[in-house]
Amino acid sequence: MAKNILKVLLIFFVFGSNSFAQEQTTSAIKQLVETYKNDIRGPYYRIKWFCKDGSIRDAKDPCPDDIDGIQHASFKQSALDLRKTNHLYFGEILAAIKTNEFLDANHNYSRLKQYQIGNYLKSIDNGWILRKGQYYRGAIQSEDEEAWGKAFFETVLNDDNFIKTNYYLIRQALKDIPHNGDTNIGQLMRSESKILAEEIPSFMDIRIKIHGNPQKTDIKLVEHFIQKNDSKLSLKEKKKLKDLVVTMEQFYAPLDFKKIDKEIASLNGNAMVVEEIKNFSTYFNDHNSSRKIVEKSASILANIRGTILDFKSVKDRLQLLDISNQLENILLIETQNWKTENLAETIHKIEALTCASLGTGLLEFWEYDQVENNLKNSTNKENITIEELNNVLNTSRSIVEWSASLIKANYNEDVLNYTHFEPLAYGFIDDRVRNSIALSLGETVSKLGTFVAKISNINNKVMSIDNQSAIRGLNPGYAFGELVVVDGNPDAIEVQTNKIYIFQNPPSDLKPVAGIMTVSEGNLVSHVQLLARNLGIPNAALSNENLSALKKDNGKKVFYAVSHKGNVILKEEDDMSNEEKKLFEKVERSKNMIEVPVADIRLDVSKVINMRTVNATDSGKLCGPKAANLGELKQLFPDQVVEGLIIPFGVFKAHMNLQMPNENKTYWEYLNATFKEADAKKKNGSSDEMVEQYLLTSLVKLHKSILNIDLDKSFVKDLKLNFQTAFKNDMGNVPVFLRSDTNMEDLKEFTGAGLNLTLFNIKEEDKILQGIKRVWASAYTERSFKWRQKYLLNPENVYPSILIIPSVDVDYSGVMITKGINSGTADDLTVAFSRGAGGAVDGQSAETRLITKKENYLLAPARQADYIRLPNYGGTKKYYTSFDKEILNDDNIYEIRKIASKVRQKIGEKSEDKNQAYDVEFGFKDNKLWLFQIRPFVENKQAKSSEYLNSITPKIANSTKININQKI
């Protein structure tokens, strides 16, 4: 008996420990990385023989001849455990992996991407986890790795759909996975120059040149540096510099056209492409023109991508893609040598590089179709108006952003994951951008932007940085405060209301700040963008290069302004004019502080309400505007709005009248006493910071207490009965959304979008009941309170109601504003959509469109790799997508126009302001449109009418014509 028990315990220990293994903490992984760096074997255990029959033998006991096998390192148990607990793969040995496991399709190809990130880290950090392990002889056999790589690509390239949906990723993988003797020379060149600049500060200028504007003449710069500093350099430093010269010579070495001609001779597929490649060597030698070479190679790149599926042999496809990467390298070199002289040539270069972006996978075919004609048509005439030229510039900027954001969309999830324990990983995406068409395209567009800014009189004045034409304003406003430049994960930053932030991309739950600038705009109608517009917070977009240039100004006190036309000012405090200083002389708030109306509130109604019985007039009385307006929509569009229940203000107030534990007063009395005490502290001379800290501490206590409040039994019974009536099923059988809906939302001067909690797709009865308390408590979170404080005179009178609606598992969802926001007119529509549920509102990189009565303009494609769906069992399920197809189809666009017209007609006619624009949330399920919310679209009137902002807004003569051949 004892033996059996011992046996069971042993089985549990061996197998159960992994089943219940907890995810390792960031600090534990950091420690493990450091341990590997200092271990002579890194993450490896010892050398083994891995035989084809599955057996594993010691290094001195090879596989039998009739079985065969390969030899390489095995892994330490800690490395194997990390795979199971955190899905992290360090020090991969390709020959040891099955193709499908390495591809890792269920995790959006994470393992493949981690291999690439690992290679990057090894190149810039002296081997990274293999700092000492790289000298562990026999750990990796290069010939086995290369044979595995060739077999891997011949397997994945057999999948037509994988090629179509992951073209960019495949081409990048070819640069990193050994398969034909090649290595990623471009990455090695940048890594070696980066390491040298860190060790030799005087080398920094050359490193910047190699990273930002790489040319063959850089070799001479390095050689001259060696000669000039010969006496100062150590032998080790000289060797590293000479190694860099060798790497650069390899990078800039001419293509071996004889080898290419030999490779394509046997290709069997699209004859036109084969012939085009064959002729390229002759073309290259006959045309000593960088422009001609760039245009021709861009065309071939696009044609290879467009016809690769015509080549049925996987070996042919592999050869073709390798040739594609070689041609891209030639293009990257020659595009730096193409110096444009006039406006027409500059636009032609942008056109050629846009074609190359398509050919290298940075743009999708449907995206290219949206922009191609705009560029081509602009150079088909002798003169072009300033307005038309600005349209060309906006299109060109978009192409740069789309190209760079595709790189980010592919790798961002894994890079951010690695950044938690290895900050150096953050440079991986920038490295990929610099080794792509996006770098030269961005430089050319910047040159065009400088010219357009000059003739349009739109000049940014952002500190003293270069290439300011990439900066453009999104929301008008002005601010003064400390500048904080965040070049990394924004979620780790605790933002403050009096500071100005520059982000790579803003956090979706951004607390109020004085001003923001972002590299990743997100989308025009996310909650953060709408709140910024609503509060008059200046908001602008800038390039990654601009962000890097502004790092030196981090921590400085600055003045920041964005005009109505989008020009941007950012200057140090000492450089402010008297007029700008006067804007901040009054410490007292002058931002149209408003009072939440409570005179008509109905706190006597403490029963659950069917949404069908309310309309817009009940907003602020029985419930918030979400429920009231959706009730109105239900009456106007009965087939496109779900059923719903409302927990009115009165139910919340009845629970707040209960005794609060350990306080000798009710929840409501505690809340009011808190604000009364805060006012007293302020009158007694306490600073705003001290008062705010007191309020936040008190509200945290209230928030926690509400989460534990006992729900009234009669209310729970009433809720269950209404579930049955409205949703035709018992509570616990219908997955629902719980949406917070306060009386401080959608006021004339404040939107409150996204401040309080929405709970997705909750099914279990206990979770619904607990969710009600969570939604009530969310009105007292720090973020919600801080946004309200900027506007409300009586924040203690905020009452949450709750809207309960059944989940609709939409295919895609988003937001519509019934006007053009940054472009277009009041008659147009701005629409942002993402796949799955909750689209666009949380700042995802959404498919954004300007829809006019007759046209439909793509402002930005979706660049969000992941999305969520709403399974019937409750909760959410994560999926991944590719970008080869647009989200909204023509039928969707037709339905959007139709619903917008009805909203303007039916809702607008009841509004006091007949020109009121609306913010509408909706989605499509099997092409049927479902409405989820409507609210007034609120803009900040002070920011729109500010005399100062008007004074810095340039007057643009849009009809002025410019000769297309004008020098630039």
Automatic annotation (TrEMBL):
Keyword Magnesium on entry: yes
* GO MF entries: ATP binding; metal ion binding; pyruvate, water dikinase activity
- Membrane-crossing ranges are none
Q: State which pathway it belongs to.
A: Carbohydrate biosynthesis; gluconeogenesis
Ranges for domain Pyruvate phosphate dikinase AMP/ATP-binding: 622-947
The text of the family note is: Belongs to the PEP-utilizing enzyme family.
Q: What is this protein called?
A: Phosphoenolpyruvate synthase
